[in-house]
Amino acid sequence: DAKTTQPNSMESNEEEPVHLPCNHSTISGTDYIHWYRQLPSQGPEYVIHGLTSNVNNRMASLAIAEDRKSSTLILHRATLRDAAVYYCILRALISSGSARQLTFGSGTQLTVLP
Amino acid sequence: DTGVSQNPRHKITKRGQNVTFRCDPISEHNRLYWYRQTLGQGPEFLTYFQNEAQLEKSRLLSDRFSAERPKGSFSTLEIQRTEQGDSAMYLCASSFTSGGETQYFGPGTRLLVL
Questions:
Q1: Which residue of B has its CA nearest to A89?
Q2: Which of B35, B37, B46, B71 is 20 to 30 Å from A44 by CA-CA measure?
Q3: SS3 annotation, B26-95
């Protein structure tokens, strides 16, 4: 799987937007960009994923660069409950009968300040 | 359904003892994954089941580790002759065969080998 690069840590103030960057310069044309987060003492939790177009869901937005070599996870209004480690993961298109595990890096530790 | 559950949540054992962990996936999910996470690192893939068949194993899964999913429902992960280096969080995830392949994680079992 292609590698991703994320900052080790970021800080944000409560109720302000947060932009979490991810570089993936070796991404292939069929790699999906997935984001998971892990709150303290919990298992990882799916946040969002996309291929080429920007994506929105109730948790966050995903902005994907035109060349797909980078992406940004956007939390529109950070809350204290958003403090977590955020992982950016590339996953190859899954073909019938096969499955691919998630390959996690070290992620970005997001601290939300009150 | 309340999601993926894992038992026990915590386990302390002495070096050389055997331990077994259980994972109950989301009921309609046919795929089940085991991961291991050490402090400050992202989860690392151990093994994967589709229904009752174990289809993939990581090189991390030494001969002391064995996993089963006897009826394609719950799974167990056994570690024989535990070593201090086995101390980690053991995470289980499940998913349903689909284009998105989102994995849903349990809360994990934290193992401490003394």
A1: B42
A2: B71
A3: CCCCCEEEEEEECCCCCCEEEEEEECCEEEEECCCCCCCEEEECCCCCCEEEEECCCCHHHCEEEEEEEE
